[in-house]
Write a structure and sequence with these properties.
- One of its GO terms (molecular function) is glycerol-3-phosphate dehydrogenase (NADP+) activity.
- Its EC number is 1.1.1.94.
- Keywords: Cytoplasm, Lipid biosynthesis, Lipid metabolism, NAD, NADP, Nucleotide-binding, Oxidoreductase, Phospholipid biosynthesis, Phospholipid metabolism.
- It comes from Flavimobilis soli.
- The structure is a single chain.
- This protein is of the alpha/beta class and about 350 residues long.
- The protein folds into two domains: about 5-195, Rossmann fold (3-Layer(aba) Sandwich); about 195-340, N-(1-d-carboxylethyl)-l-norvaline Dehydrogenase, domain 2 (Orthogonal Bundle), CATH 1.10.1040.
- The chain contains 15 helices and ten strands.
- The strands form two sheets. An eight-stranded mixed β-sheet has the order 5-4-3-6-7-8-9-10, sandwiched between helices. It has a two-stranded antiparallel ribbon with strand order 1-2.
- Helix 4 packs parallel to helix 5.
- The protein starts with a strand and ends in a 9-residue tail after the last helix.
- The structure holds nicotinamide-adenine-dinucleotide and SN-glycerol-3-phosphate.
- Nicotinamide-adenine-dinucleotide binds near residues 22, 45 and 152.
Length: about 350
């Protein structure tokens, strides 16, 4: 396995000590990636039952049925115990729970630890990106927060299928540490200094995946899917550029790559939820039928607020928010998008 020693901390032989906050599908899978890369990994979870099963049976049947986890991964519900001496603190809980959860753990996160956000959402009410929420909740500089985002459906990675990701941070040392800590023969990180762009890609693609799901649930075919994905990427790019992102991020893994994976895969919770809505379920019914966290439900609202605040037009996001939260019938969604004033293609 590749080397994941903590050379930047001046301990060339010590493995990186990583703590993953959250024992859901992605937290558990990322813990497996870190362990396969040579890190010393502990998962902190809320469920005693899930933690016990990870420790004793090396499985998490609630979130990753049928997957055998590395035996070295430990799991506990005791946050202080988990976080003591951590070099990396990886946050893998739903975006809207991040501030409250991290504020409560603030005193347990060691000084100097690099904090990694795996979350793909924008906070309701504040419209903050997750790295901003992490930094505010823990009282740390944003340079200590690194983001990992890409075409990373948990189940496929838990099966060790090959994929790549983007590790984004403003501090080159912290970014390199995280990239080294999660590099395995099946998981290839690319670094990027554009935290804003990478985070917006991850959050908004969930909303676009809901839109694609709705279209497919309504019975529309691949022309509609391709139209929503392509114009969805335009929306993401427009918002990103207004917020200072780098244009090169959007056709990359965190942008087009993740959009393609999420909009195409039946494993995606956002896509699945959209399909249920398109097929006629209510939002509550669709959430229950989907299971897991479909971040696009809440982020459709916060992304739209962010867009309004910056004068950015995001018609697909607006239509998703209208269907999910304002009672717009799904049948009206396509019409509301296609009837807009005609314009030239492009941003
Ligand atoms: N599943 C994926 O394929 C995937 C891939 C990339 C990124 N993500 C992102 O990672 C984040 C987590 O996703 P997931 O798939 O692990 O979700 P999940 O629904 O499978 O698990 C979420 C976990 O967080 C826990 N949790 C919920 N509220 C909590 C709180 N207040 N405090 C502590 N723990 C809490 C739950 O108990 C659960 O263990 C999301 O932002 C998601 O968009 C997921
Ligand atoms: O299951 P989803 O819709 O949350 O998507 C999972 C990942 O974000 C795909 O990269």
């Amino acid at each position: 396995m590749p080397d994941a020693t903590n050379a930047t901390a001046g301990q060339p032989d010590a493995p990186v000590r990583a703590v993953v906050l959250g024992s859901g599908a992605w937290g558990t899978t990322f813990a497996m990636v870190l362990a396969d890369a040579g890190c010393d990994v502990t998962i902190w979870g809320r469920s005693q039952q899930v933690c016990d099963q990870i420790e004793r049976e090396h499985r998490n049947s609630r979130n990753l049925p049928g997957i055998r986890l590395p035996e070295a991964i430990r799991a506990t519900t005791d946050a202080a115990e988990a976080l003591a001496g951590a070099d990396l603190v990886v946050v893998a809980i739903p975006s809207q729970s991040a501030r409250e959860t991290l504020t409560a753990l603030r005193d347990d996160v060691p000084d100097g630890a690099v904090v990694v956000s795996l979350m793909k959402g924008v906070e309701l009410d504040t419209d903050r990106r997750m790295s901003e929420v992490v930094s505010e909740a823990l009282g740390i500089d944003e340079s200590r927060v690194v983001v990992v985002s890409g075409p990373n459906l948990a189940r496929e990675i838990a099966e060790r299928q090959p994929t790549a990701t983007v590790v984004a941070g403003t501090d080159p040392g912290a970014t390199a540490l995280v990239a080294r800590a999660c590099s395995t023969p099946y998981f290839r990180p690319y670094t990027n200094a554009d935290v804003v762009g990478v985070e917006l890609c991850g959050a908004v693609k969930n909303v676009i995946a809901v839109a694609v799901g709705i279209a497919q649930g309504c019975g529309y075919g691949l022309n509609t899917t391709a139209t929503v994905i392509t114009r969805g990427l335009v929306e993401i790019t427009r918002l990103g550029l207004a917020l200072g992102a780098n244009v090169e991020t959007f056709p990359g893994l965190a942008g087009m790559g993740d959009l393609m994976a999420t909009c195409a895969s039946p494993l995606s919770r956002n896509h699945t939820l959209g399909k249920h809505i398109g097929a006629g379920l209510t939002l509550d019914e669709a959430i229950a039928a989907t299971g897991g966290t479909a971040e696009g439900v809440k982020s459709s609202r916060s992304v739209l607020e962010l867009a309004h605040a910056h004068g950015v037009e995001m018609p697909i996001t607006a239509a998703v928010a209208a269907v999910l939260h304002e009672g717009m019938p799904v049948e009206e969604m396509a019409m509301s998008l296609l009837a807009r004033p005609k314009r030239a293609e492009g941003l």
